[in-house]
Write a structure and sequence with these properties.
This is NYN domain-containing protein. GO terms for molecular function: RNA nuclease activity. InterPro entries: LabA, NYN. Helix content is 33%, strand content 28%. By secondary structure, it is α/β, with parallel strands linked by helices. It has a 6-stranded parallel beta sheet with strand order 4-3-1-7-8-9, sandwiched between helices. The chain has a two-stranded antiparallel ribbon with strand order 2-10. α6 links the parallel β8 and β9. The longest helix has 11 residues. It is globular, with a radius of gyration of 17 Å.
């Protein structure tokens, strides 16, 4: 499905990919991920989308966002919004679908292949629009989790479905060894 001379871009829905990898029990090594897709074609851009909590002294995602930014990713962030639902529970909302869609549509005329790292069914119309412009679309997510992390209609719309679990040995970070006392 990948051709060496393909102009390629990857679009990573950060929260969705994190949840999919976590459900499969591994962490993503973003350096290896970028190398893998650089190897599969001419990688034009690698985008990573995530919402960030404002006002917190420390955000656990901040070191990753900084690392990605310094290592060739186009990092797109926006402030997450906090609200209280009807049951009085504090919720956080940080949907990045519009930002990802706009970037993909703007880049489409210069692409042969787009790789979407998300299982969110809301992206089905985006895939359809990219395909109408002649862009092949691969979707990376998982059907091996319970429940599956990919919407069935998204998987059906894509030209190619890549099972995230099948990439584990290529882009997975080795599990950290537990620290021993006295080392």
């Amino acid at each position: 499905m990948f051709y060496k001379d393909d102009r390629l871009a990857i679009f990573i829905d950060g929260a969705n990919l994190y949840a999919a990898a976590k459900s499969l029990g591994f962490d993503i090594d973003y350096k290896l991920l970028r190398q893998e897709f650089d190897r599969r074609g001419k990688l034009m851009r690698a985008y990573y989308y995530t919402a960030l909590m404002e006002g917190e002294d420390y955000s656990p995602i901040r070191p990753l966002v900084d690392w990605l930014h310094y290592n060739g990713y186009c990092v797109v962030t926006k402030p997450a919004k906090e609200y209280t639902d009807a049951m009085g529970r504090r919720k956080v909302k940080g949907n990045m679908d519009i930002e990802l869609t706009i970037d993909a549509m703007q880049l489409a005329p210069r692409l042969d292949h787009a790789v979407l790292f998300s299982g969110d069914g809301d992206f089905r119309p985006l895939i359809e629009a990219l395909q109408r412009q002649g862009v092949r679309v691969s979707v990376v997510s998982t059907i091996r989790s319970q429940p599956p992390m990919i919407a069935d209609d998204l998987r059906r719309q894509a030209d190619n479905f890549i099972e995230l679990d099948a990439l584990r040995d290529i882009i997975g970070r080795p599990p950290r060894e537990p620290q021993q006392n006295g080392d």
